[in-house]
Design brief:
homodimer, Rossmann fold, 2 domains, DNA-binding, alpha/beta, 211 residues, 7-stranded mixed β-sheet
DNA sequence: GGCATATCGATATGCTTTTATCGATATATC
DNA sequence: GATATATCGATAAAAGCATATCGATATGCC
């Protein structure tokens, strides 16, 4: 079942799950209603959900609790991914202390930084921040396979290489630069400039229309 | 020329621009080389660039300075968008103080928060953080049309409504919830859970393959 | 100056994703 | 219990996007 989920569908699944969790009061919910709430078409919702669940019943819709369970299983929220974070700057510490990741199956086990003043227990998150030379050992001992990069752009590639060297198979990159890794390693660039391009483009067209 | 840029292309343009800015030493660059650096195909690069530039010449490639200029114009970096940010928590302040946005044509003019202890000048960014009842007036006086939401999920929709009421036409939402607005308002959800779904899915398949 | 070659740009093919159509089925009402 | 209807699920068409192919063109070398 897991094989045939398309990339686009996969990215919408957490959105459905979030909506259902907020809305867990009702017993049943129809694809039509989900679509309305999220601004999608009901056909797309049905197709997405069909990929992970068969909790839908004619005339009633989907059984909410079953659908939530199916989504959580499909997304692997039952056993959370461990991750390390490199770069304890403002963004890095904001992510370290973001409690919401637990709800999405992510567990950041520790932070790393080159700056000695950052080392020790982070006040806000309560998580430990270590020197870079501890990275490899910790990743291997705890079998961490995911790295989060929140360092300045110029050192992002170097940090990426270190993470890969320490056994990471997936990298979540918040540095505003493109980084590379061998083919079997997944790089997910969280590119704010791309989002901004969409927004800015819309704004200009929207304001032009008026004039 | 601006009409026919596809959404996917639009999101890749800032990536090209970033690469070129880093690499501004050389006079010319070929689509092939850009593709190699970014892990794309040269055909896609050419097609993307063709949408915004004709700085390409056979045998030489693209004139870097011209291409940068074309990209900046297409992305509207010549006149930056002003924006307001609502929610001066850790993520909000991290974004407020992120200097890199200037390079992407974004200028956050001020922050807003309900908590009186956040009001005043933010130490790190030097930007002012105001009470929510100042929002409408400031947006209108400065003709701000873009709002950034970094508040907890439960109040995100309410903040969105206020921003729209104050004249915003585009919303950049970092709250981990889906928000709605009238059709002509663009909502860009920066959904970390979606990214995480991709990463987690890759990890599981990758680790399964070995076993 | 002519020729080989790197590179572009345009047209065509194929794949992925979305949207449309239609029949199937369980529930509720009479 | 029969019938109407809300809703699902599957198959089919359309759109959007990526990849392949091929001719055109400017550059540099002989």
């Amino acid at each position: 079942m897991l094989e045939k989920i398309s990339l686009q569908t996969l990215q919408r699944l957490p959105v459905y799950l979030e909506l259902l969790r907020q809305d867990a009061a009702s017993d049943n919910i129809s694809a039509n209603r989900i679509a309305e709430e999220l601004g999608l078409t009901e056909i797309q919702v049905r197709k997405d959900l069909a990929a992970v669940s068969d909790a839908g019943r004619p005339k009633k819709g989907f059984v909410v609790t079953d659908l939530i369970a199916d989504l959580e299983r499909a997304l692997g929220y039952d056993n959370a991914d461990d991750a390390v974070l490199v770069g304890a700057g403002r963004l890095g510490r904001a992510l370290l202390s973001y409690a919401g990741f637990q709800r999405y199956g992510l567990n950041i086990v520790a932070g790393f930084d080159t700056n000695p003043r950052a080392w020790g227990q982070d006040e806000v998150s309560g998580k430990m921040i270590y020197a870079m030379d501890k990275l490899d050992d910790l990743c291997r001992r705890l079998s961490v396979h995911m790295g989060i990069i929140t360092v300045p752009a110029p050192v992002a590639q170097c940090v990426c290489d270190e993470l890969v060297g320490a056994g990471c198979r997936a990298i979540w990159n918040f540095a505003p630069t493109h980084i590379r890794a061998p083919g079997n390693i997944l790089i997910k660039n969280e590119n704010m400039a791309s989002s901004l391009a969409l927004i800015s483009h819309h704004l200009r067209r929207n304001l032009e229309e008026e004039a």
